[in-house]
Amino acid sequence: SSPISLTATISNSCNNLIVFFWSESPVVQSAEITLHDVDCHTGNTRIRSPRPIADELMLCQRYYEKSYNFDVKPGTNDTSGSEFSQIFTGSVLSCPTMTYKVTKRVAIKPTIYSADGAINNFGEYDTSMAWVANRLASGIDYSGQNMSQVYSNGTFTIGNISRWHWTVDAEL
Q1: Rounded to an integer, what distance in angstroms lies between the CA atom of residue 105 and that of residue 21?
Q2: Per-residue pLDDT reduced to its tens digit, 137-158
Q3: pTM assigned to the model
Q4: Across the chain, where does the E strand assignment appear?
Q5: What does the alpha-carbon distance between residue 35 and residue 137 come to, in Å, rounded to a whole number?
Q6: How far is CA 18 from the centre of its chain?
């Protein structure tokens, strides 16, 4: 593909500008046409300037964020990217602070998933990282716009590891 440039005179009374891409030759319905780096300028002034994907992601994370990897659906059996902590007591697990990448629109309570996908549970794993059991996430120590803490009153084995994922949803 080669770059295409178009110069046009736009009336000062123009309120809306629509640009069409047209093919002179027939294109079958299942064909794919790819356009990239499309820009519209008036003189040396850029009208539309797409934001970098990292900026778009940060704007979205103000409303929704998850600890799962980007392409993994919440509730999936997946330990990659999960939070974890060593278990120091057999009765109450208070997880370390879950710090959000972006300040949320409002203070928000997280949803917890064990690493095997069970909602409102922490996953307990032994020292060889073999799954032991899921333990109910019993309550919230703190929920804010930048971080949260959740705990469990389950019975854990001292020395084992707890693994979990979280999501926060601050939609309107």
Answers
A1: 39
A2: 888 778 889 999 888 887 888 8
A3: 0.68
A4: 41-42, 45-46, 64-66, 83-86, 93-94, 98-99, 111-114, 121-125, 131-136, 139-143, 147-152, 161-169
A5: 47
A6: 33
